[in-house]
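Weekly modeling sync, notes
Attendees: S.R. (lead), two postdocs, one rotation student

Agenda item 3: backlog of single-chain predictions. S.R. asked that every request posted to the team notebook include the full sequence so nobody has to chase files. The rotation student volunteered to paste the first one in as an example of the format we agreed on. Action items at the bottom.

Example entry:
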Amino acid sequence: MNRSALIPVLLLTAGLAFGLGWISKPSQENDGNAAEAGGSKSAGSAFRSNRPLGAIRSSSDEKGGVKEFLSQYTSGGMISSEDMTAAIEQMRKENDPILRRKLFTELLENLTPENAQAAYVALQNGRRRGRGAGDDELRLMAHAWGRIDGPGAIKALTDMRAERDGEEGGRGRGRGGERGGIDLVSVLSGWATADGAAAANYVSGVEDEREKSMLSYGVVRGMMVNGVDEAMAYVSSLPQTEDGGRTQNWYMSTIASEMLEEGLDSAKAWVDTINDPNLRGGALSRVAESAVRDDLESAVEWVTQYAGDEAGQRAVNRVANEWAENDPQAVLSWADSLPDAAKAEAYGEAFEEWTRQDATAAGDFLTGMEPSSARDSAVEEFSTTLSREEPATAIQWAETISDEKMRTDALTQVARSWFYRDREAASQWIETSGLPQESIESITAERRGFEGRGGGGRPGGGGPRGR
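Predicted structure, as returned to the notebook:
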């Protein structure tokens, strides 16, 4: 079911994979031509070689190049802020990805609380000028900074973001604002790796709930470096959010992804060790999603045993979501053997996909269904999916939903789609709809970016319908 409560932290996973970019071979013969940059020991273009195109260097050549590179910026075993800036600038000019990664790694190992901000700013400035890999290195730099000086990194990045927002007239939600938020998450992940309790304590004091969710994700990721137990304990300690626990489910889904690295069977066994139902649902749904892609028949059998539990309903949702892409009617047959709540989950997923494939056949099937929670879920998905092509017809279907809250939600969703396509016709319907004012305001509000449907499912498989 694509009822995503869009959580921006979903965009962060690729950055926390710590991908690195381009690097290049140093020249060992042009040291004397190194250019002085602002009083620093910058090597300038002398560090680049004139090797023939396609030439292969030996590992000893690379080691010598890295050593030579560091020697230009190190004094007394340390790199000053000024020289760190010059070193980052020089590293960014290199275009051999293998060697650049080695140079960047060496600079990270020489990061200190005193030179970290200079390194971060140099990377950030280079990214703005469009040179090199940029984002991945910047996130990794922020993570490393958090490991050695979490409080200092948070303060520095927060101050920089406030200054940038001031320069942009307080907008703060453009590319720069999002960039700062992502890097704060990376800092928190590094801080949590070094001192999970301190990082968690900082996040607990953040007042903005959206930002707190983002930063908590960083804490979870950082704690996972030391093992999943600490991360699970942290997620368990978090208060329930207003989204019905979906944020916690997503954190547990993230931890489950880590456990899946040890193999599907190990992840299944791990799920059975989770006693807290508030944690189990997100983990179970993520493992179920992986299981159904590995072996559909086995996954269906495995998930069916949990269908009577509230936590298991999320797993049913994920299996049905994957299975319905190929055979929505088979999902309906399976759903008929499940307890009512799980059946409703599966019916909703099946009808979302069936409506896309053959709306006429799906509508004919619904016409013959007796009122039930499964029918309500099916009609909700049928109407919201149909609204993209036939909003007026979709409204009529949504009005047949028995559950009042689900009916209001579906009508709001369908009417929003209709209002976007035909404002005059939708406005006429709204006048006599009887919808609460809050729903009407949601329908007529200006659209901002991506609408939360059709985009990959609810975090952690979402929660049971009607909650």
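Discussion: group reviewed the output briefly. Confidence is low (pLDDT under 50) at residues 1-58, 172-177, 449-464.
Action items: rotation student to repeat for the remaining queue; S.R. to check formatting next week.
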